[in-house]
C-alpha cells in the first residue's frame, strides 16, 4: 500500500490538505491530466482509499471524481479491480467517429449562424498554431480547441458536452499515436476549409467538409486497429 501510494504521489503530487469544497474538482483534474499525458498508463488501477489517503480527504469526493472520469471514457470499472485507466482507444472507435459526424454536424448547424469575427479569428489562430506544432500532446489539445471554437455558439449545451467528451478521448489518442498512424502532424486543409465555410455562413458546405474530415479519421483509426490486431 505504502509503495503504491508513493507511486501515485510521484505521479499526481499531493501531500497537501485539499479544501473539502474543492476536493472533487482537484482530484478529477489531477487524474485527468495524468491520464491524458500518459503518466497514468492504460490498465492501471485507481483505488479509492489510496487516493483519499493521498489527498487527505474522505472517499466521497474521490468516488465522485472517478465517476466523472468514467463518464469521459478515461476510466473503466473492471470486476475485482475497480476503476482502471481506460485503453487509449477502444474497438468501438470507428462507431464513435460515426456518432461524431451526427453530433458535430448538428453543432455546426446551430453554431455557424451565430459565430462572429472574433470566433473566426480564434479558429484561424488555432490553425496557425497547429501548422507550427510538432509536439503530439499540443497537437491533440489544439485540435480539440479548434473544433470546439467552431461549435461554441451552439445553444444546446448538452450537445456540446457530449462532443467535448468525444474530443477528449480523441485528444488522448492523438497524443500517443500520431506517429504510429503514420501522421507526423495533422493536415490543415480540412480545418482551413471548415473555417472558410463558417466565415461565409455556408452551413451545408461546412458540414460536408466536416463529414469528409471525420470519415477520413475513421479510416485511419480502422487501419491502425487492424495493424495492432495483426501484431
TrEMBL record:
Keywords tagged on the record: DNA-binding, Transcription, Transcription regulation
Keyword DNA-binding attributed: yes
Signal peptide: none
Domain HTH gntR-type as annotated: residue spans: 21-88
Gene3D superfamilies: GntR ligand-binding domain-like, Winged helix-like DNA-binding domain superfamily/Winged helix DNA-binding domain
One annotated GO molecular function: DNA-binding transcription factor activity
InterPro entries: GntR_C (IPR011711), TF_FadR/GntR_C (IPR008920), Tscrpt_reg_HTH_GntR (IPR000524), WH-like_DNA-bd_sf (IPR036388), WH_DNA-bd_sf (IPR036390)
A Pfam match: GntR
Keyword Protein transport: no
Protein name: Putative HTH-type transcriptional regulator
Native source organism of the sequence: Pseudomonas wadenswilerensis
Taxonomic placement: Bacteria, Pseudomonadati, Pseudomonadota, Gammaproteobacteria, Pseudomonadales
Amino acid at each position: 500500500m505504502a509503495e503504491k501510494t508513493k507511486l501515485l504521489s510521484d505521479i499526481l503530487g499531493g501531500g497537501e490538505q485539499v479544501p473539502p469544497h474543492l476536493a472533487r474538482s482537484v482530484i478529477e483534474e489531477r487524474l485527468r491530466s495524468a491520464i491524458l499525458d500518459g503518466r497514468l498508463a492504460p490498465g492501471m488501477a485507481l483505488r479509492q482509499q489510496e487516493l483519499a489517503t493521498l489527498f487527505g480527504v474522505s472517499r466521497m469526493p474521490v468516488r465522485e471524481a472517478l465517476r466523472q472520469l468514467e463518464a469521459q471514457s478515461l476510466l473503466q470499472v473492471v470486476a475485482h479491480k475497480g476503476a482502471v485507466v481506460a485503453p487509449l482507444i477502444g474497438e468501438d472507435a470507428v462507431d464513435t467517429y460515426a456518432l461524431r459526424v451526427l453530433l458535430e454536424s448538428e453543432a455546426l448547424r446551430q453554431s455557424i449562424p451565430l459565430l462572429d469575427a472574433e470566433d473566426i479569428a480564434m479558429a484561424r489562430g488555432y490553425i496557425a498554431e497547429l501548422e507550427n506544432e510538432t509536439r503530439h500532446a499540443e497537437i491533440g489539445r489544439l485540435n480539440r480547441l479548434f473544433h470546439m471554437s467552431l461549435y461554441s455558439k451552439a445553444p444546446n449545451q448538452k450537445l456540446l458536452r457530449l462532443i467535448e467528451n468525444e474530443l477528449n478521448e480523441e485528444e488522448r489518442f492523438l497524443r500517443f499515436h500520431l506517429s504510429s498512424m503514420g501522421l507526423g502532424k495533422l493536415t490543415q486543409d480540412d480545418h482551413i476549409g471548415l473555417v472558410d465555410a463558417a466565415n461565409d455562413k455556408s452551413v451545408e458546405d461546412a458540414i460536408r467538409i466536416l463529414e469528409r474530415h471525420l470519415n477520413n479519421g475513421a479510416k485511419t483509426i480502422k487501419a491502425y486497429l487492424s495493424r495492432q490486431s495483426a501484431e
